[in-house]
Amino acid sequence: MASPRLLRTALLTALSGVLLASAAIGPAQAETPRAPTPRAVTFSDDFNGPAGSAVDSSKWQTETGDNVNNNERQYYTSGNKNAALDGQGNLVITARRENPANYQCWYGTCQYTSARLNTSGKFTAQYGRVEARMKVPRGQGMWPAFWMLGTPVDWPASGEIDIMENVGFEPSSVYGTIHGPGYSGSGSIGARYTLPNGQAFADGFHTFAVDWAPDSITWSVDGNVYQRRTPADLGGRQWVFNKPFFLILNLAVGGFWPGDPDSSTVFPQQLVVDRVSVTTGDTALGGAIKGLGGKCADVAGANPANGTPVQLYDCNGSAAQQWTAASDGTLRALGKCLDATGNGTADGTPAQLWDCTGGPNQKWTVSGARDIVNPQADKCLDVTGNSPANGSRLQLWTCTGGANQKWTVG
Fold first, then answer.
1. N vs C: which end of the chain shows fewer Cβ within 10 Å?
2. Gene3D superfamilies in the record, alphabetically (predicted)?
3. Is 300 part of a structural domain of the chain?
4. Which distant-in-sequence residues (6+ apart) come within 8 Å of 174 by Cβ?
């Protein structure tokens, strides 16, 4: 079923230092590969199918038309004209300098064609890990994006989460951004991630993700966290991200932010998508939480009393080290919740066991970079003093990327 064209008005500027606020998070750390933790898959597309076939219409719909609001130059076409499977497990969105059907754009006869897909009316996500593995195009004027819009769409009041945007004149950088009422377009809130040593994103595949929980969104590239946003970042403005959003993949050509293609831009250009998935953390834990020195998060003395310290201890498989993640964002052992003492948010706030109250001091999110974060405090679960000794107390601390804040769960 065709839907109205969803026009973005993200009037971004190339001066990203002015536009995008710096992220309140420690430096990105390279992660050691590990076995994936079991997660509940709510949406997945690996784009398997014969070469030249269109995307699965039960999962995606194709938008058509132009976009005057961003000054984009492309005409989005239907079917498999500019979005097709390659027969090797990829979706290929192709931007071409052409106009085979005399398409008309806001500026006159269209100069380019491309494609834009969304899951509106077919799938919405609310929380979880939303990720795509893809290879972006290259060249001046290219603007690939993987993003989400809140439902029902009433932009910017309904919200927008940009998981990945790249503009061709910055081949080594991508951006993650949120838009909402009072912080949209050039006033949006986000950050940039840049590859080291002048590498370009167009040179290979990369995984772009957000870990999304109540009152928290965390962005990562290839498992490296580079930004976390909570309501505290909005200066009293409304957080509109605790509701369903649908997914969008597109490749725009030109626009206010990337600028138009020039004589250096080679066509066709392609956004190659290997997979898209949405998974929830409800089953992410189901056992030990292992941290510094290979030791476990442990309820001291296996004591279920309120106020019992949570500490680091040799892993022994006891009930005091068996943690589960509930759908409300809590981490539970011995029938009670991991709790930031006294509803504290300061560095050094001890972690303890307490009756589950639903309070923000008992909400946790597990990021793809192996941080366990309390969104209210925007701080990480930390081993005090970086000590692997038995009995070292767990606490809240500003996220640094250190080994004493890294956890393997399940």
1. N
2. 2.60.120.200, 2.80.10.50
3. yes
4. 136, 164, 165, 166, 192, 193, 201, 208, 221
Q: What percentage of the chain has pLDDT greater than the value 70?
A: 88
Task: Give pLDDT, residue 329.
Answer: 80
Strand duo 173-179 + 189-194: pairing = antiparallel
Q: Which of 31, 131, 160, 170 is catalytic?
A: 160
Specify burial of residue 335 (Cβ count, 10 A radius: 0-12, 13-18, 19+): exposed
List of E strands, 96-223: 104-105, 108-109, 112-114, 116-118, 128-135, 142-150, 160-165, 173-179, 189-194, 206-213, 216-221
Clarify whether 98 is annotated catalytic: no
Cα within 13 Å of Cα(356), Cβ side: 16
- Whether 131 is a known active-site residue: answer no
Q: pLDDT digit string (tens) for 182-216?
A: 999 989 999 999 999 999 999 999 999 999 888 89
Quick: pLDDT tens for 120-135: 999 998 888 999 999 9
Residues 165-182 have pLDDT tens digits of 999 999 999 999 999 999
* Residues facing residue 142 across a β-bridge: 253
70 pLDDT more than 50: yes
Q: Mean pLDDT over residues 53-79, rounded?
A: 96
As for how many domains the chain has, the answer is 2
Pair 179, 264 in one domain: yes
3-class secondary-structure state, position 17: helix
pTM, 2 dp = 0.68
The count of other CB atoms within 10 Å of the CB of residue 243 is 12
- pLDDT at residue 283 greater than cutoff 90: no
d(CA 156, CA 8): 9
Report residue 388 CA to chain centroid gap. 31
Distance of CA 407 to the CA centre of its chain: 19
**Active-site residue identified among 31, 63, 165, 170:** 165
Domain range for 308 is 286-409
Domain for residue 207, yes or no?
yes
Of 251, 280, 309, which residue constitutes the final position of a domain? 280
Q: Write down the mean pLDDT value for the chain.
A: 88
CA dist 404 and 385 (Å) reads: 8
